Amino acid sequence: MLGLSAATLAGYLAAIAVLMITPGPDMMFVLANATRYGTRAGVIAALGVAAGEAVHVAAVVGGLAAVVTASPVLFATIRWAGAAYLIFLGIRALRDGRATAATAAERNSRGGGAFLRGLVTNLLNPKMILFSVAFLPQFVSPATGDVTAQLVLLGAIFVAVQLTVDVTLGAGAGRFAGRVTDGRWSRRISRICAVAFIALGVRLATSG
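^ thats the sequence. predicted structure below, dont judge the formating
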């Protein structure tokens, strides 16, 4: 398939599976939206995250990601912006965790903005840039086919798998939260996500 052997694809899917079970900002964001604002918000957040990853893949194909990683100033700017945004999300989730259950109107209004917030969360994660630049090319073989086509295929597979996992997580968490009528479970998850966001933001800000 476009120069990719069955063994290469199998190894690639195995590597993706390991990455998907490791909690990160994207997964926490989807979970936080689903538990607080319902299934619809969780699914929309997952779509936003997937759109962000699609942009990263396009940047790799176009060579832009390599330019970003080669510029210490630009990369540091993205890193600091990403750290600040994660801490902002943590503070917001902490505030939500102290609030009462979201009303239907609030669920709709927050759900509608979940796509953009998911997109920004992914785009401002410099580790996704590094991942895209360092990970995808490992499975490309210039000797067996067009490099660009292989990168597009690998990127599309990654986005599809990530979207499937995040949509499943968002839908499941949203449905479960909807059955807990007192809202205590969703508030607890919001607090857990808040701590995770802030910790991830601090870690990103202090990492090299």
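The mean pLDDT is 79.
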